[in-house]
Amino acid sequence: MLTSVLKINPDNFTGEELEEACNILRNGGLVAFPTETVYGLGGDALNPAASSKIYEAKGRPSDNPLIVHIADMAGLYDVAHGITDNGQKLAKAFWPGPLTMIFKKKDIVPLSTTGGLSTVAVRMPGHAVARELIRRSGIYIAAPSANISGRPSPTKAEHVIEDLSGRIDMVIDGGSVGIGIESTIVDVSSEETVILRPGYITKDMIKQVTGSVSTDPAVDGKVLTAPKAPGMKYRHYAPKGQLFIIEGTAGMVVCKINSLVYEKEKEGYKTAVIATDETKDKYQCGIVKSLGPARCENSIAASLYNILREMDYLDVQYIYSESFGDDILGGAVMNRLLKAASYNIIRV
Ligand code: TXA
Ligand code: MG
Predict the structure, then answer these.
(1) Is the distance from the beta carbon of residue 231 to the nearest atom of ligand 1 less than 6 Å?
(2) What's the pLDDT score for residue 222?
(3) Ligand 1, closest atom to CA 121?
(4) Who's near 266: CB < 8 A, 6+ residues apart?
(5) Residue closest by Cα to atom 19 of ligand 1
(6) How is the chain split into domains, by residue range?
(7) Does residue 335 have its Cβ closer than 6 Å to ligand 1?
(8) Which fold has domain 4-220?
């Protein structure tokens, strides 16, 4: 299959440019498109053949459900029922935007889209191109992140092309995304509101709207129960090299990483360090990559997947990363980094 690439400027387009993409989607084909979080791999959410194609293109396990993307509130009532008060309030506060909510599904949503679950994940993205694509195509778009399963999510069209060229019909290139990590997922299918995946919309922001909210204990990987978001159990976001996170006071972390890198380089391995602007000059050997200024949480989130992919381009075998606190996007960055590192933490 030949994958066509459509370049579009999200700040200056009429919508007509998307006509071919809409036709592909309406006919059961696959189109990758930018959202404000990461690029999504879109197909018709109500067409079981299209969702099967998504799983196949990504190499994704079929029990890992897809998010249904809608353009307006009417879409929510088409695909979900029993919309809770908290669901409504959160939609009002954060949609369109980087929040996915789990509701009870209506029968029109095929089980192939929800991985066999009786619930459905719904998101109204804020990105202008994503919204226009949904609106103009007249369908609801099932879209997981547009990467090969297990690789870092794509934050630019080049990442999508790298992973999925030849496997999908089209990539809409709208440049780099704004946020760079996936949406927050919150289960509002019952009265208790539970975060299943941390993201740009933090626990505090949700709590301000709903009054109370808990986090699925499986999110931080410390318990062995099955996570409620099936995708969270798979190794994710992983670079090819072995990634370790070094935790401790700033000075100790730098010292430890320097000695680890020195050892590995001496043994002949290609090594790299993931640091911040403040610390990057303190590392003496290995490849050093900065995620940006430590206090600029948006820049750290936006650079993470890009840098993990760079590690692969450079064939790095050992990667040592500084750790990031719960204050960086409510722990969302650390959550992704921990998963990329398969929870390999070195404490100093
Ligand atoms: O930011 C995002 O959410 C991006 C963009 C493209 O919208 N999409 C995305 O999709 O990250 P994906 O498929 O990579 O992650 C979806 C997550 C998976 O962990 C999946 O298990 C969970 O959502 N999920 C989907 N439906 C669910 C459901 N009914 N119940 C619980 N978790 C669900
Ligand atoms: Mg994903």
Answers:
(1) yes
(2) 66
(3) 26
(4) none
(5) 231
(6) 4-220, 242-347
(7) no
(8) DHBP synthase (3.90.870)
